[in-house]
Amino acid sequence: MPRGVSFTGEYLSRYLAGQKRWNEARGWRAKEAEAGRPSTYRDYCHAHGLCSACAATGISLNDNGSGFKAIGWNGNLLLYEECDACGGTGRIITPS
Fold it and tell me: What does the angle CA 78 – CA 21 – CA 93 come to, to the nearest 5 degrees?
């Protein structure tokens, strides 16, 4: 069963950092496309060590890619599925 995490603390901080990164990502993608190199958001994430599976938040995206996957409650606190791809870090995990 996936681990449930609240959208607070480090997860919220990563989400907010990602929002600030959108303009940087757009600029990077435009330069890469102009140079004829791969320039998808996934390429941007890979080049910067970010997990594209969760948009670098550490929380799994919904199946449709819009929003985050809620999996239950802890009292009044909604819990979200921790990203399996990065273990909830928001960063690419390199196999050891």
Answer: 70
